[in-house]
């Protein structure tokens, strides 16, 4: 793994921080009806959700994700629903305050399906949802928010991403940032699956810097059939 040094380090670090700060949309925690954990391969959103629950921001924690290509059973040997519940119980969350989809055939595998399924599922569980705290990884938080906002704009969302630090020496992290930016651009073109994102020119340029660096070290994989392109 190449360690960034000198002028290249400074340029890539600044670009990575700018993109990270853009993707890591966050609000001050506020009272809500439920804390919803997005699917993913990290335990940090679970820890964050448990913290918010213990601090009294919502009485329940919910999740519906089975796991996609890089999460769930591929990481833990069990579905994300099973892993999340296991960890939350270990962290002291009451089982009666955990709301999850136990039926594997109904569990979701991507953010769009989570946004479509979660609200009706929770309403069927007796919620009268007005406000929801969304918890995901920082790199995924903005896309998660825009997806939920597009599918269910009637809900008030509070963004409380997990506490994760940016490691600029990890090319996989940089690659995920570029992937998220490309998804925001692609999905937002026709506003089919997410609300159209507002992206400033400096964030776009930072994304280009990261993409060029990843190409140089052979770790950039272009999206298939992109609807939009970076500048």
UniProtKB/TrEMBL annotation:
Pfam families reported in the protein's UniProt record: DUF218 (PF02698)
Q: Which GO terms describe its cellular component?
A: plasma membrane
Q: Which InterPro entries match?
A: Cell_Envelope_Assoc, DUF218, Rossmann-like_a/b/a_fold
Where the record annotates domain DUF218, the positions are: 33-162
Where is coiled-coil annotated? none
Give the protein's recorded name: DUF218 domain-containing protein
Species whose genome carries this gene: Candidatus Shapirobacteria bacterium CG11_big_fil_rev_8_21_14_0_20_40_12
